[in-house]
Specification:
Blueprint: H1 3-9, E1 18-23, E2 29-35, H2 38-43, H3 54-62, E3 65-70, H4 74-88, E4 103-107, E5 115-118, E6 127-132, H5 135-148, H6 160-164, H7 172-175, H8 189-203, H9 208-223, H10 227-242, E7 257-264, E8 268-277, E9 280-290, H11 297-311, E10 318-320, E11 333-335, H12 340-370, H13 373-385, E12 393-402, E13 405-415, E14 418-419, E15 425-428, H14 437-454, E16 462-466, H15 469-481, E17 489-494, E18 499-502, E19 505-509, H16 516-545, H17 557-567, H18 570-574, H19 578-584, H20 587-604
Parallel strand pairs: 7-10, 10-11, 12-16, 16-17
Antiparallel strand pairs: 1-2, 1-3, 4-5, 4-6, 7-8, 8-9, 12-13, 13-14, 13-15, 17-18, 18-19
Helix pairs in contact: 9-10, 13-16, 14-15, 19-20
């Protein structure tokens, strides 16, 4: 991406806090970053600065586009950045790839619960607060909780039976006043749990009484001229006042939910999806959809919600929507929030989809003026085939054989609408006997993509099969067997009417004969055919060079090919009469061949003369 490319969309980038993502031409995330002001931060990558690291310049050069997600605060951006880096492992991100996560305060689900710092969240019934972006702040909070509410920190199993039998003895923590000795039944479970409830209130942000207590303490220490102690209390009070127990990125009150919102124009709709797991946003996606004449936003949402949930493997039992809908899955809980954390999530989704629409409109208004012919053709092809991605990488397959002899196949590769000849591949069909085009297509498609998977090579966005429904069906058998059915778009092109077939759809697509996208499909098909025929001729030539036919004076390669195609083998030709041979060639050729074979037989007889 160049500075000129960014200038076209710069005014569509919001000035809110958020997370930005640089993506390459194959939609692979190169880098994830956070920003207090997205526009200022992203703009810094395209300025005149010469001191940027080489790696940064390379990353920007390989970037094809930029995505962003808006959040409420800079701290939220930090948390979402952490989640996305761990999920996608971008090539140019160094930090946060080590699996470390932010800290939580855990109130353990047990008798006489412990309160401690943890990086891991388990669904064991315990209560977790956080995450905390500042390790210093969380230690201040834990120290204050420890000072105000003496609790045990030992891992002992304090069952009623163990306590009554005197299994445990108080430790040093009891003697230094950090614990009140529940292990020896020196305090009741009710008294202990009352302190736990007070701690929960503090961690939830309900600490008005505690703040008043701190202010009284500060005043008392000040009057007694103990300013150091007053300052320590002030630091702890500041930590409490700055602490936000509720976050739009991680919430203590929200578990697994899916959030949807919609925006659009007369022709297109855009559905924003936020996936929340364990209270944290782990994925955001905006889906583009084409509107039919009678579609409204409700119809589109009812279609898009199950499709997106299935695509991103959501198991959430609750969906947050801008209004009530009738969904197919009646077990789903539909929430239309008016206030609270869930309302904030919905507003966040709506804000993201509106900025996406704004950026899309800006790109469409300016991109047409500067896009290359290849970009224009590929965008047209994407629209004609209703693909989700631009087919920057497409592959086309074709077979070639003559009555089953020397069956071969080809795979040609186009990148950015141009042939990439270094990536062409040809195949000798190994498992098929006779002229079975369907079986040959099934074999070569399986071999091609099995190898790409084994070598972890990028897959194409579009696969073209030269042939109609039969050839396409054979190719799809191999694609399904490899589990690639949903990884790319597959079409077949029938030669007579230039009809485009899709898997499991009996009705063909007819693209305008003058369309640039159809011409690109035809170019790929013709190139695959040329490459297959050339390879087939080379194979036949190698075989013919070693036959007796090409050794006969006056019999050329083309005549030998014609005769071998007619009779199937040299052995059958050897047993044919002059008239039979003449039917496939000419009388002159037939006499030469017959004379050659008859002379060879005489030469082979032993000489019995004395």
């Amino acid at each position: 991406m160049t500075t000129e490319d960014f200038k076209l969309i710069s005014d569509t980038v919001p000035k809110d806090p958020g997370v930005y993502r640089f993506l390459d031409a194959e939609n692979k995330i190169l880098y994830v970053g956070k920003a207090k002001n997205l526009r200022n931060r992203v703009s810094s990558y395209f300025g005149e600065r010469q001191d940027r690291a080489h790696k940064t310049r390379v990353m920007v050069k390989h970037a094809h586009r930029i995505e962003f997600t808006i959040v409420e605060t800079e701290a939220d951006a930090l948390l979402l950045e952490n989640t996305l880096i761990k999920k996608h492992q971008p090539r140019y991100n160094v930090m946060l790839k080590d699996g470390k996560s932010y800290s939580y305060i855990c109130i353990k689900k047990e008798r006489f619960p412990r309160v401690f710092l943890t990086r891991n969240v388990y669904r064991d019934g315990s209560t977790y607060f956080g995450p905390y972006t500042s390790k210093t702040r969380i230690k201040i909070i834990l120290d204050l909780v420890k000072q105000l509410f003496p609790l045990r920190n030992c891992p002992l199993s304090l069952t009623q039976e163990n306590i009554e039998t005197g299994k445990f003895k108080v430790c040093l923590e009891y003697h230094i006043k950090n614990c009140l000795g529940p292990c020896e039944n020196l305090e009741t479970e009710e008294e202990y749990n009352e302190r736990i409830e007070q701690i929960k209130n503090i961690l939830k942000g309900n600490f008005g009484a505690v703040i008043r207590h701190f202010k009284d303490e500060m005043q008392r220490y000040s009057e007694e001229l103990e300013f150091e102690k007053a300052h320590n209390i002030k630091e702890k009070l500041t930590a409490f006042e700055d602490y936000q127990a509720k976050s739009t990125v991680v919430s203590s009150t929200i578990r697994d939910v899916d959030v949807f919102s919609i925006a659009g124009n007369d022709k297109e709709a855009f559905v924003n999806y936020i996936k929340v797991v364990n209270g944290a946003i782990i994925h955001t996606h905006t889906q583009e959809l084409v509107k039919n004449l009678d579609d409204d936003d409700r119809d589109i949402l009812e279609y898009a919600i199950p499709a997106l949930r299935d695509r991103f493997n959501s198991i959430a039992t609750e969906v947050i929507l801008p209004y009530e809908l009738q969904l197919e899955d009646e077990t789903l809980q539909i929430t239309v929030p008016k206030i609270g954390d869930k309302r904030k999530l919905l507003e966040l989704s709506e804000k993201n989809v509106k900025y996406y629409l704004l950026q899309k409109q800006k790109e469409e208004a300016t991109h047409t003026k500067k896009q290359t012919p290849a970009e224009r053709i590929l965008r047209t092809l994407r629209k004609d085939l209703q693909m989700e991605e631009i087919p920057l990488h497409l592959e086309c397959f074709d077979n070639s054989n003559i009555q089953g002899t020397n069956p071969v196949a080809s795979c040609v590769v186009f990148k950015n609408a141009k042939p990439s000849k270094k990536d062409y591949r040809h195949f000798n069909v190994k498992t098929v006997e006779g002229p079975d085009d369907f079986a040959s297509m099934r074999e070569i498609v399986h071999r091609r993509y099995k190898r790409l998977l084994e070598e972890k090579q990028p897959l194409p966005q579009l696969v073209i099969i030269d042939g109609g429904k039969g050839q396409l069906g054979a190719a799809m058998e191999s694609i399904r067997e490899l589990g690639l059915e949903d990884k790319f778009t597959v079409i077949g092109i029938a030669k007579k009417l230039e009809e485009i077939f899709f898997p499991n759809d009996p009705i063909p697509l007819h693209i305008d004969k003058k369309s640039e996208s159809l011409k690109l499909i035809q170019q790929a098909r013709n190139e695959a055919h040329r490459f297959a025929i050339t390879f087939h001729r080379d194979q036949r030539s190698r075989n013919f060079l070693g036959t007796e036919l090409t050794a006969i004076p006056g019999i050329g390669e083309k005549t030998a090919e014609k005769l071998l195609s007619h009779f199937g083998s040299v052995k059958k030709l050897r047993g044919a009469t002059v008239a039979q041979i003449a039917e496939a060639s000419s009388m002159n050729v037939a006499k030469k061949i017959r004379a050659h074979f008859d002379g060879s037989q005489q030469d082979a007889q032993p000489d019995l003369t004395v």
